[in-house]
Design goal:
14 strands, seven-stranded mixed sheet, 7 helices
Length: about 240
Amino acid sequence: MRVTFLGTGAAMPTGERFQTGILVQEDGRTLLVDCGCGVLHRLQQSGVGYENVSSVLLTHHHLDHVADLLPLMKARWLAGEEHLEVVGPQGTKALVDGLLSVHEYMDGRLDLQVREVVPGEFSVAGFDVSAYETRHSLPCLAYRFDDRFTFSGDSEAFAGLANFADGSAILAHDCSFPDDVDVSNHPTPAKLGRELADCEIGRVYLTHLYPHTNGRHTEMRDSIAEHYDGDVRFAEDLQTISIE
């Protein structure tokens, strides 16, 4: 399995990190998880391209996770591609319908299949996926791909999500702000470290990074390390990880 971080930023641009998007690939199968602003460009830079993305899995519907969804549809249509599958939590159909109502000329351009999922197990793009509800300001799902890769989506750190990720080779987890930022719906490093303390995870990648984290990576890692002694790194745009 190959996991590529297309965008590791959040709603406030840093200039270097685009908004959330992750590619999951294995044996000719390709799945795009989230499609924030800039992801369409990162797809081209990654060498995969929008022509090869026919399935999108959304964690939730905040703008920094869906802003390039309609541009992806248009690019695929203009490239002569005919299909796109969009899977996500409750409200995904209403989201897609709303986008198409604003840009009516795109309605009917693709064979568009929209599916809503709930916590539990399902399949998409040939991948078997487990979903777990996170703690965020909108309904949001974390996704796990067997024992290899787990993505937290947007969420506070809490025991249930840590248990969901336990045993993963790779965990990509929201860590939006340093400890001195008073925030809800996202974790700070100390809180994340405390919740991961008893978990066995091969490597943790921190993502969904706001500009507040710039220049503070060592401090944030040290804060996590006070509670969790695992391998913790910061994800970077266009970084690819191979998972056996």
